[in-house]
Amino acid sequence: MIPMLSGTCHCKAVRVEIPRRPRMLTNCNCSICRRYGVLWAYYQAASVRVVHEPGATESYAWGRRALRFVRCRTCGCLMLWERAQPRKVSYVGINARNFEPGDLGPVWIRALDGADTWKYLD
């Protein structure tokens, strides 16, 4: 698989490669996403490649610890979330803000009420 798009953290120590432009981005207002200010693009984990030197990333999990939020250890940019316990077909959330806007092109952004109902608001 040759990824079509590549995005990096601010210091370029971590690179994320995805197979195609996202069809949609999610703007979630849950307690962590609104603080991070991310726009999520979702892909099957097997189709995403994260490239970095050993020790270049760190992760954060809370509550039930079902998800890990992975960021660059140097500049702190949030790169993705992944399941702590991968499933047969696992998905990851990729922070689209680490990609050049022109590379993403026009993308539909959906508002998700992750703070209360877990429903899309459109």
Kindly summarize this structure in a few lines:
The chain is mainly beta and 122 residues long.
SSE order and pairing:
Blueprint: E1 5-8, E2 14-18, E3 24-28, H1 33-36, E4 40-44, E5 49-52, E6 57-60, E7 67-72, E8 78-83, E9 91-95, H2 101-104, E10 108-113, E11 119-120
Parallel strand pairs: 3-10
Antiparallel strand pairs: 1-2, 2-5, 4-9, 6-7, 7-8, 8-9, 10-11
Explain what this protein looks like in three dimensions.
The structure is a single chain. The chain is built from 2 helices and 11 strands; from the N terminus they run E-E-E-H-E-E-E-E-E-E-H-E-E. The mean pLDDT is 94. The termini are far apart. The strands form 3 sheets. The chain has a 5-stranded antiparallel sheet, with no helix packed on it. The protein has 122 residues and is mainly beta.
CATH class: Mainly Beta
Label the overall shape: globular
Task: Indicate the radius of gyration in whole angstroms.
Answer: 14 Å
Q: How is the CATH topology named? A: Metal Binding Protein, Guanine Nucleotide Exchange Factor, Chain A
Give the overall pLDDT as a whole number. Answer: 94
Number of strand segments: 11
Indicate the structural class. Answer: mainly beta
Helix content: under 10%
CATH A-level architecture: Beta Complex
Major beta sheet, strand line-up: 4-9-8-7-6
Features:
single chain; 122 residues; mainly beta; Metal Binding Protein, Guanine Nucleotide Exchange Factor, Chain A; five-stranded antiparallel sheet; three-stranded antiparallel sheet; 7% helix; 43% strand
